[in-house]
Amino acid sequence: MLEIDLKSRLPIYEQLVEGFKRLIMEEVIKTDEKLPSVRSLARELTINPNTIQKAYKALEQEGYIYTVQGRGNFAQGIEGKDQKEKLLKLKGELKKTMAEAIYLGMEKKEIVQLIEEAQQQVGGERDDD
């Protein structure tokens, strides 16, 4: 399910955040599905429970999960998120990243290919814009 690379420069909690985001976006973890408890996941991955808690807090702040007091953490559905602000932020980040990639020599067709791969990864075409 989740893999932690102890040799990575990316902090463990960020690896967890990215891993859970991927699982939620790919719908491996379904909307309203309960996430593993902090203690059980810490035991399974052999990492500090505070690290798990920090990752869950970050995921909740970003709108990927929600907490029900006394019951645990659950995956938040796409339809349940307030997306406008997040999308604006992501568009700005994408624009900067693409500009840098073009500056470094990436071709338009390569960018389009990356977009197509990302669409396949999250489950298909979306021609909203």
TrEMBL record:
GO MF, any single term: DNA-binding transcription factor activity
Organism of provenance: Isachenkonia alkalipeptolytica
InterPro entries for this protein: Tscrpt_reg_HTH_GntR (IPR000524), WH-like_DNA-bd_sf (IPR036388), WH_DNA-bd_sf (IPR036390)
Domain HTH gntR-type: 10-78
Name of the protein in its database record: GntR family transcriptional regulator
CDD domains: WHTH_GntR
Keyword terms of this UniProt record: DNA-binding, Transcription, Transcription regulation
